Amino acid sequence: MKKFTDTMTYGAGLVMAFSSLSANAFEPGYPGWNIPPGVLIGATAAAPPPGLYSFNQLYSIQATLTGPGGQANTKVHLASAAFGLTWSPGWDVLGGKYTTTIVQPFTVANVGAPFNTHRSGIHNTYIAPGAISWNLGAGWFAKAGLGIAIPDGTIQGESGLENVGNPWWTFHPDLVVSYLKDGWNLTANLSEEFNTESYKTGYRTGNILHLDLTTTKTIGKWTIGPIATYVGQVTGDSSSRFYNNRVITDHFNVISVGPLIGYNFGPATLNLWGTKDINTNASGGLNPDRATIPRGYKVYASVNFKVF
Predict the structure, then answer these.
(1) What percent of the chain has pLDDT over 90?
(2) DSSP character for 123?
(3) Which of 232, 297, 218, 294 is nearest to 261 (CA)?
(4) What angle is formed at CA 144 by the lines to CA 81 and CA 230, rounded to 5 degrees?
(5) Which of 85-89, 153-157, 233-237 shows the lowest mean pLDDT across its residues?
(6) Global confidence as pTM
(7) Is residue 299 exposed (0-12), middle (13-18) or buried (19+ Cβ within 10 Å)?
């Protein structure tokens, strides 16, 4: 169980494909990322022992829109829940251990005045058809995998972005490196989102880079330590006739830090972590520049356990 709980928020990591909501960060109605920053925190590169695992994760954000198009008093409130399964069959593939994961997220989000929007529904299903973990020895592990967000969520409106689903596919390769020894979890999780064109508008959002850093120590049943996250757009958007070929935004960057605490109950493990955004910026947008990004606090809670 311990090894599983070190790796799962993690599977849930890739895994938590629910999005937050901001006002017109890129294509109007899209929050800017498919997987929220920080969802991969705690993820390690080690594969769990053979079995079927369940993870249940809650996510909340309390923020204010920032950027040239932000309003000083525009509040963003979001709550999400994601339920997923990871199967570890014990197969050896390319010298490592194979796992596969599926997650279904649900989201409720509100943006205050002057936008005054409320959205709730099912976000795109997220599947990771294959990940391979290698034990490099001396406490070092590496993992490579691919996740795919399927455009099957609650998709409404002419642009398809008037609710929490996204009308396009997102491919999400990731690379994880971990040092796991003597109770330490030192992990760097690097991943990138590649979006296809929206089947509603023809617009394509540029690539989104994620970096999640975990430094925790387990003592007895307790785990505690600092964490940090980065998310940012690293390539430009491609516009379409739907927007008169105008590019909505150029890029954004968000850096966040915070603590993680966890407790191993035996049959299940509970992890809590939160971050504060310490650096945020967004630029681009139509003339005048109206790009925005939420700045505030994010809180996660995750319960992981082995089904059989």
Answers:
(1) 64
(2) P
(3) 218
(4) 55
(5) 233-237
(6) 0.87
(7) middle
In a domain, residue 308? The reply is no
According to DSSP, the residues that pair with 113 across neighbouring strands are: none
Q: Is the pLDDT of residue 282 over 90?
A: no
For residues 69 and 289, give the distance between their C-alpha atoms in angstroms, rounded to a whole number. Answer: 6
Residue 307 inside a domain? The answer is no
Question: CA–CA separation, 264 vs 224, rounded Å?
Answer: 12
Domain that holds residue 256: 2-302
Task: Answer yes or no: are the C-beta atoms of 122 and 105 closer than 8 Å.
Answer: yes
Which CATH number goes with the domain that contains 64? 2.40.160.40
Which pair of tokens denotes residue 182?
Answer: 């003597």
Structure tokens at 201: 């508008």
185: phi then psi, degrees, rounded to nearest 5: -125, 100
Residues 6+ apart with CB under 8 A from 297: 61, 62, 63, 274, 275, 276, 277
Task: Please say whether the beta carbons of 224 and 216 come within 8 A.
Answer: yes
The amino acid occupying position 195 is: N
**Partners of 145 in the β-ladder:** 131, 174
Q: Rounded to the nearest 5°, which phi and psi values hold at 46?
A: -80, 140
Residue 272 lies in a domain: yes
d(CA 262, CA 301): 10
Helix (H) or strand (E) holding 263: strand 251-264
CA distances from 20 to 42, 59, 214 (A): 20, 9, 22
Rounded-to-integer distance, Cα 133 and Cα 42, Å: 16
Tally the domains of the chain. 1
Q: Give residue-wise pLDDT tens across range 12-49.
A: 333 333 333 333 335 767 777 888 889 888 789 999 99
